[in-house]
Structure formats: C-alpha cells, structure tokens
Amino acid sequence: MSSNPGGAPVALRPTDSSALLIDGKLLPGSGGVYEVLNPATEEVLGHAADATPADMDAAIAAARRAFDETTWSRDPAFRARCLRQLHQALLGHLEELREITIAEVGAPRFLTSGPQLETPIAYFEYFAELAESYAWRQDLGVAAPMGMKTQRYVLKEAVGVVGAITPWNFPHQINFAKIAPALAAGNTLVLKPAPDTPWCAALVGKIIAEETDIPAGVINIVTSSNHTLGAQLSTDSRVDLVSFTGSTTTGKAVMVAAAETLKKVFLELGGKSAFIVLDDADLAGSCGIAAFTVCTHAGQGCAITTRLLVPRARYEEAVKATADTLASLAAGDPNDPGTICGPLISARQRARVEEYLRLAEEEGGTIVVGGGRPKNQERGFFLEPTLISGLDNDSRVAQEEIFGPVLVILPHDGDEDAIRIANDSPYGLSGSVCGTDPARIQRVIEGVRTGTLSVNGGIWYSEDAPFGGYKQSGIGREMGIAGFEEYLETKLVAEPAS
Ligand code: NAD
Question: What's the CA-to-centroid distance between 232 and ligand 1, angstroms?
Fold first, then answer.
C-alpha cells in the first residue's frame, strides 16, 4: 500500500504490472524477474519481467508484422480513436500510475500533477488530434519538367518500425513523448524502458492490452535488467528508426550501431545548461529560481540549468542568495506533497554525484551549502541540495553532466562574456536568462546556442512545444508538429496532368 493524501490508500500491483507486452499478449520474461527498488526507502517493491534477446527478437518481429500486414499505417482515423481510448484508459488508472511513479522513480508527488504524469498523459489527445488534422497529402501543383505536364504531390507516411529506448528520470514523459507521436504517425513500436523504472512502462502495457483496441504488435513493451537489449534495436534491420533518450555517451553508441543498417536516429541527450543573470536583473529573485530549478526531482532532468552565471561584481551576494534558497529546500520524502527534492534513483547514481563533489574540492572549489547525505534520512538515496563556488567554466564540474541537485555558480564580465561562457560547453539543450532590458535579453536569446531558452522564468514545456538539443545534446525535436514529423517519411508522386 502507498499513502494517497486526500484519498483512500492505493495499492501498488507489482505482480499485475510486471509483464512484457509482445504481439498483444502480456507475457513473462524469458529471463525470469528482477527486483524493483524504491529509491526513497531502498525497499524491494516487487519484481519486473526480465526480457532476454529472444523476447526482444519476438517484439521486433511483432512490430514488423503489424506494420507490414495490417492497415494501421493507412488509417489515421482509427489511430486517433485508439489514442483517445488509451488517453481515457490512462486517466482511469491515474492514481495507480501516480503511486507507482512516486514509489519506483522517487518522483516528488507534486511533479506527478505535471511533467511526471498528468501532462504527458494529455499527449495522447494532442497527437490523436494531429493524426486527424495533419495534411497527409500535400499538393505541389502542376509543372512541366522535361516538357511533360505533370501533377505532383507529396504523401507523408510512417517511417515503419520504431525502436524507442528511454531513461528512468521522467519515464512517462519520455515514453509517451515517443509512443504518442510515433503511433499517431502510423508507425509500430518497440519500447525498451530503463532497467530502473520498468513498472511505469509495464503498467501502461497492461492497460493497452486490456483496455484498448490497439492491434496486436502495434506497440510492444520489453522490460529488462539488461541494458544491451536496447542495442538490439539499433542493429536489427527490421527496425527503421531508433528514437533514443539518454546520455550523450550512449547516444553516440546508438548512432554508431545504427549506421550499419543506415536507420534514422533521433537522439535526445544530455545537457549542462546555463542560467544567465544579467546585471539589471533582480539578483536574489533570479538566484532563487535557479536554486529551486536544480532541486526539482533532485536535479535529475536533462534540461535543468546547472551552471549559474552571475555578474562578477555581485558574485558573493549571488552565492549567498543561492545558498540561502538551497538550504531551505531540503531533500525529503517524495510522498510528501511539499517535497521538491526527492532521492536520486540509485546508490550508483548517488555515488556518481558524490564523486563529482569530491572532484570539485580537488579542483579547488568550495561546497558552500549541502554536499552530504541528509542527517534525517537514514535510508534512501538522498543528497542535500548543493552549491559549488570558486571554480571557472573549464572545471570538470562545470563541463560535465552531474545529474544531481548540484549547482555550479560562475562569475561573468557582462552580457557577451555570459553568452561566451554559456556556449563554452559540448551541450546545447536548454537555458535561462533573467534581466530587464529587452534589447539585451534579445541579444542573449540570439547568442546562446541551445534548443530551449526561458526568459525571466518563462516555462517552455508543453505538448505543442518542440524540444531538443543543439550540439551534443541531440539530433531532432520531440513534441509539437516538429516532433510528429520526426516519425514521418516523405513520398513524392508524379502523374501526367491533363
Ligand atoms: P543511459 O544513456 O545510461 O540509458 C538510457 C537508456 O539506454 C536505458 O534504457 C539503457 O538501458 C539504454 N542503453 C544503455 N546502453 C545502451 C546501448 N549500448 N544501446 C542502446 N541502449 C542502451 O541514460 P540514463 O542514465 O538512463 O539517463 C540519464 C541521461 O539521460 C542523462 O544524460 C540525461 O541528460 C539524459 N536525458 C535526456 C533527455 C532529453 O530529452 N534530452 C531527457 C531525459 C534524460
């Protein structure tokens, strides 16, 4: 049982939600089961189906058959109906999904009202509507190439079989941002979720199998403790597109592996985004936003701004304002509706973050606040929100993605210097700027090489907003019309015109 503030306790159903979904059937994993941990308590919650390469092979075969042998890819009205059905079915399981998400991901309860659950469920309605309204046939008019009067038009068609590989940090958001547009566009799909968060995906698989008319094989969900099952999706010639979200290192491996069969790759990767405070901004208010942001889901978000760039003349003042806010946002129980900063996903991830804190001190930095495990949390993979000062942008903690509640504060010498530092990174996923002069803000918007940018606390996240990275943060865009079109091919047809 799990607590459900304001309502009756909601049972977690581990055994019910631990099957694979292959060719429309809920199946046990050929590799047996593996343990699912609660990162806030370190308790074993239950078990998940452990797929083997043979299971993955069966899932790919089912997706291929469903694409090649059914009318799914040619019937957008039916697809829209199925996606709406799934949307309603997910809403019918909202509280069960919420409790699993809190328990398995360590996601703070307040985030499940937004990006950890409720917002991504709405993607299905958005993409159902797009399946109905999209211009599947686009007229190019009549021309006379080589003297022959010809009517030309473009048909937009599904790419084929999509292999979707996802991480653990926002499982529903990332799974649904792939499933909804890929299916709406007429593809079939195999989802390989992260080993740490199998239940979020498996429960969705069970709902699809039992409560929707989505045909067998159109969507297959393969949970496994084995990371390398994902690699099978990159190399198998029956897969036409790999849609990957995860670290830049793994993204590069996916791209290399996919080259052999020259499949399309769509990559959403890591980030080390800059939060720029201009010298005409409200310094304390801006630093407060930056501190709050890095605590959200314990900093385990690719687009979270983790480098805070402040005017050099007010560096000490900014350090104090940021540290004060971080100290007020203690890491705590994700079940508590007031918690912003929950646990890290695993002991391994916490050890990785702690290694970066050791490195920061070795590089000459100061841990101004945080840096340790909270005294009042005896169990769980918690870490205190942490501020590192006294380093420059060349340091490893300013260059590498840490993926924890850790903010590095850096001085800048004016707007152009801030833009230079923001861009001095292998990544280009996200960013923020705070200031008051519109012309100066415009210069920052144009100067920073990044896929999303927030101005004075603006929120860019929604289903119609294309999201993705410049540089080593990825290739392609997720969500919105741009995200939908990643899952489409273009066929040009030419007929003699009268
Ligand atoms: P990861 O790269 O370790 O794993 C991601 C997924 O890839 C998992 O399902 C994993 O099992 C699988 N995988 C591992 N090796 C593979 C291989 N060789 N071939 C195919 N698949 C393989 O990432 P993670 O630690 O799970 O997630 C954190 C990372 O994800 C961070 O770098 C974060 O920035 C990034 N991320 C990016 C976005 C985005 O939209 N840009 C969103 C969320 C997370």
Answer: 15
